[in-house]
Recover the amino acids of this structure.
């Protein structure tokens, strides 16, 4: 399948800097994917996303969005992307609908009219439909300054999807949102992907948000240090293991040794699976067990281990 985002040897060095902010990274994203770009502060995430959205010029390398080069054809790139920045980019002195109307005019979607009622019917129907889906229909004509953080994020999504972009860039989209707003926002993003086939490019510090990504790319010091599915990234450094214990610890210790099952004690018996199933191990143990726990690594476990290593 042809990639919707193609990045080859992308490099960015800022003036007077001794090192590259982005250092020769390459990756691709297929249409409809949720792609998560992760990394600590200063790793190069914001620089990368700024280049891909044409707000920053690369030093070298190639970046294509929907087949359009970010350097040679930035206007075509912008027509194919929607962007939600870390900080809200809304005009607080306007109503929600006015913010969206100016966005639609700048994109050349509709001719500008001074009031909502004078806008083309297609625009009014599109706004009403999107606002209803987001649950902000009753607030579209209220000033932005009255909106909560979650409502502002929803409005930014509505605005960014108005021109039906093929790629939606989300740069820390849930920063500052309460748990309920974060959950509602992700419910809508899933709906957008499901119904429109929209590709989502995500940067986030909330690692649980990246758990359902199709592909994860971790960068540090401008370089890619891990790349793959969440399962592949987790398997790279962190292994699943089993914790067991018994009232007769000496018997359990002897039995594990006789079965050639490697273990350590701290103080529970830790058994690394090493490709074996939990069922296989437990079936082989005849000593009555008082504790059975499995440790399955989270993406956060793997992420911290990978960043610490690099």
């Amino acid at each position: 399948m042809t990639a919707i985002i193609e990045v080859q040897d992308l490099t960015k060095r800022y003036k007077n800097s001794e090192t590259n902010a982005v250092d020769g990274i390459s990756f691709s994203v297929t249409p409809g994917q949720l792609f998560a770009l992760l990394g600590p502060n200063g790793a190069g995430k914001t620089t990368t996303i700024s280049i891909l959205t044409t707000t920053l010029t690369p030093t070298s390398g190639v970046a294509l969005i929907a087949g359009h080069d970010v350097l040679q054809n930035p206007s075509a790139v912008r027509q194919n992307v929607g962007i939600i920045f870390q900080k809200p980019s809304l005009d607080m002195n306007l109503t929600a609908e006015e913010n969206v109307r100016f966005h639609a005019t700048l994109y050349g979607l509709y001719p500008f009219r001074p009031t909502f009622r004078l806008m083309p019917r297609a625009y009014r129907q599109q706004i009403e439909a999107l606002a209803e889906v987001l649950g902000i229909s009753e607030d579209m004509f209220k000033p932005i300054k009255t909106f909560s953080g979650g409502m502002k994020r929803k409005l930014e999504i509505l605005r960014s999807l108005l021109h039906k972009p093929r790629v939606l860039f989300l740069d820390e989209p849930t920063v500052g949102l309460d748990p309920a707003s974060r959950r509602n926002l992700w419910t809508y993003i899933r709906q957008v992907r499901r119904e429109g086939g929209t590709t989502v490019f995500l940067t986030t510090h909330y690692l649980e948000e990246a758990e359902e990504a199709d592909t994860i790319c971790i960068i540090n010091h401008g370089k890619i240090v891990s790349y793959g599915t969440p399962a592949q990234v987790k398997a790279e450094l962190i292994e699943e293991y089993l914790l067991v214990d018994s009232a007769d610890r000496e018997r359990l210790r002897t039995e594990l040794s006789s079965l050639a099952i490697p273990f350590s004690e701290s103080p529970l018996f830790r058994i690394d699976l090493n490709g074996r199933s939990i069922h296989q191990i437990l079936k082989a143990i005849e000593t009555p067990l008082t504790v059975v726990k499995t440790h399955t690594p989270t993406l956060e476990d793997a992420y911290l281990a990978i960043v610490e290593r690099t």
Q: What stands out?
A: The longest strand covers residues 5-12. The domain at 5-229 is CATH 3.40.50.300 (Rossmann fold).
